[in-house]
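in:
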């Protein structure tokens, strides 16, 4: 890690500490995890596309799974991937959460 990015992380940690008690070590590992998750999501997102959005069902196509369709249901402001055994944290739910149309439904 370069001195510059370490300095930035220390500053971020200072800001975060105002909001909640968190040690620098915990903060670092949390930041790294979030960064990893973000990268995973971006990689996955390249292979996922929207097929259709109908009422509370969003249909996605996942090229990583041979172009299989995945259905994400939005109910009571919660998302679950029906195709992934009602998972609420698979890549399809993550992808759906980033879509403006889904955000609109969630903010209603
Ligand atoms: Zn899924």
């Amino acid at each position: 890690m370069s001195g510059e990015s370490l300095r930035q992380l220390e500053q971020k940690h200072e800001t975060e500490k105002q909001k909640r008690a968190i040690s620098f070590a915990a903060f670092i590992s949390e930041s790294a995890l979030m960064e990893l998750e973000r990268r995973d999501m971006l990689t996955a997102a390249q292979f996922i596309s929207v097929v259709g959005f109908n009422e509370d069902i969003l249909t996605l196509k996942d090229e990583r799974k041979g172009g299989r369709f995945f259905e994400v249901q939005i109910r009571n402001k919660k998302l679950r991937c029906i195709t992934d055994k009602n998972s609420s944290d698979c890549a399809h739910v993550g992808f759906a959460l980033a879509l403006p149309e889904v955000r609109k439904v969630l903010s209603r």
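note: The chain has a mean pLDDT of 89.
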